[in-house]
Amino acid sequence: MSPDTMVRIQVAFEGGQSVGANVSEEVADALAAALAATEPVFELKTEEGTYVLSLGKVVYVRRAERETQIGFAATASA
Question: Which pLDDT tens digits describe the chain residue by residue (78 residues)?
Fold first, then answer.
């Protein structure tokens, strides 16, 4: 998976549990489509491995651009 096409998602379930993961944009789109189609389960392929989600228990999915790393950059002198 290319870091340029990765997004961060947070999936919340009934009962308050949640799982966060970095996934490709294609996987995030496929998860949204599966939820809209009321599919029973979805295999969520992440950087860490694969989760099998029971979509009937999903309360919401938060999608955000992947976090950027803060650091020091060299500045040009004039």
Answer: 455 589 999 999 999 999 999 999 999 999 999 999 988 999 999 989 999 999 999 999 999 975 555 556 555 555
Of 14, 2, 15, 11, give the one whose Cα is nearest residue 64. 11
User: Helix or strand or coil: residue 16?
Assistant: coil
All domains of the chain, ordered by start, with CATH?
A: 3-65 (2.30.30)
pTM: 0.76
Quick one: CA torsion of 8, 71, 3, 39, rounded to 10 degrees? 0
From CA 57, how far away is CA 68, in angstroms rounded?
30
Contact 30, 9 (CB under 8 A): no
